[in-house]
Amino acid sequence: MPAPLEFFFDFSSPYSYLLSEKIEAVATRHGRSVAYKPILLGAAFKVTGMAPLVEVPVKGDYSRRDFERSARFHGVAFRMPTPFPVGTVTAARALLWLQGNGSAKSVPFVHKVLRAYFAEGRNIGEPAVVGQIATELGIDGAALLAGAQEPAIKDRLKKQVDEAIARGVFGAPFVFVDQEPFWGHDRLDQIDRWLQYGSF
Amino acid sequence: MPAPLEFFFDFSSPYSYLLSEKIEAVATRHGRSVAYKPILLGAAFKVTGMAPLVEVPVKGDYSRRDFERSARFHGVAFRMPTPFPVGTVTAARALLWLQGNGSAKSVPFVHKVLRAYFAEGRNIGEPAVVGQIATELGIDGAALLAGAQEPAIKDRLKKQVDEAIARGVFGAPFVFVDQEPFWGHDRLDQIDRWLQYGSF
Fold first, then answer.
1. Is the bond preceding residue B83 a cis peptide, omega within 30 degrees?
2. In whole angstroms, what is the distance from residue B184 CA to residue B15 CA?
3. Angstrom distance (rounded) from CA B94 to CA B96
4. pLDDT digits (tens, 9 = 90+) for A37-75
5. In this complex, do A62 and B200 lie within 8 Å of one another by their Cβ atoms?
6. Residues B135-146: pLDDT tens digits?
7. Contacts of B170 in chain A (CB under 8 A)
8. B128-167 b/e with 16+ CB inside 10 Å = b?
9. Cα B88 versus chain centre, distance
10. CA B4 to chain centre
11. Which of A37, A86, B122, B146 is deepest in the core (most CB within 10 A)?
């Protein structure tokens, strides 16, 4: 069984959302799965000195336009959320807790949280909203939020962020295919070819 | 006659080189031409506070890998040049001088200078190299270098940089299709669709 694609992302990253809606179909076509690995982009930005995209003068304005146009281009429902960005530590820890429990709802949780924020305008920065989304998936929301507060889970997220930075992750989405790094939703065509040929 | 695509670029930008090798075929398919508009990226970076890509920690290393992989992906000859980046004010002014004279060799000059740097490792930061490349195209290299020093040409480049910044150009390549902005060589598929449908 070939290794899954490693998909490092932040729940508050628009391009992560766009790629999350497309990557599984490509992975599946090549007999692969996708391992979703939540991180906190703020920590990565400290390493590079980068700022959140929409806060960069001029480039930020273009980016908002590009989020929406790229969503239309790929046929993905998108509405720029406010507030933006939001803190995603609860959502990230909740996902790690689900994954740690071997929950079959881990991947549906990823998609539902991202869609809640980027298509439905729900504020996923609020723990109560994360819990509510989980409940809608048939997950025990209270147990999830409690689990997200466990020291072992907090530690796991911190380690995952550190690992990502150590492996060169500086933005999101950031995908590794058998150690080959691809940054950005706009590298999906290259990922597809890499999966096809092993390398190119 | 529909308006040409406006292609803002810096002669020292790898992604500008990659897109320059691909965009004319797409434009032509939709009955369009490409107007090459040289700028100096350093001036644009001052507005956004951005640094040259390869100077950004971590991201710079990825970028070098991505230049080469993206070139292979698109079937474009590429060899990371040294020194990199180089000053491109002479090349930019030379192009403006050719364009101002209505030279039919303006577009071939763009391609030959970019290929000289990114495929052949010639240092296009040196005026003598720019003159030599022009000579190889059958242009009078000495006249070109003299023309590039004319106050009117210097002023034209300055105005073009200012215009680009005023229109939101913060990086390169930056293409306008009927005022719609597209940043990056990886927006060619969106440019193609925009040309097809007017908008999407």
1. yes
2. 7
3. 5
4. 999 999 888 888 888 888 888 999 999 999 999 999 999
5. no
6. 999 999 999 999
7. 56-59, 62
8. ebbbebbeebebebeebbebbeeeebeebbeebbeebbee
9. 10
10. 15
11. A37
Interface mutation vs chain A, best among B8, B22, B62, B68, most A CBs within 10 Å: B62
- Tell me the sheet residues that pair with B36: B7
Cα→Cα distances B81→A111, B89, B117, B121, Å: 42, 18, 6, 5
Q: Which residues of B touch A197 (CB under 8 A)?
A: none
Containing B118, the helix (H) or strand (E) segment is helix B106-118
- Residue where the block lists tokens 């990565």: A44
How far is the first Cα of chain B from the last one, in angstroms, to the nearest whole number? 22
List CB contacts (< 8 A) between A171 and chain B.
Answer: 59
Cβ–Cβ gap B57/A49 under 8 Å: yes
Contacts of A55 (CB under 8 A, 6+ apart): none
* H/E stretch holding B194: helix B188-197
This complex has an ipTM of 0.94
Q: Of A35-49, A128-142, B86-100, B161-175, which gets the smallest average pLDDT? A: A35-49
Say yes or no for a CB contact (<8 Å) between A168 and B61.
yes
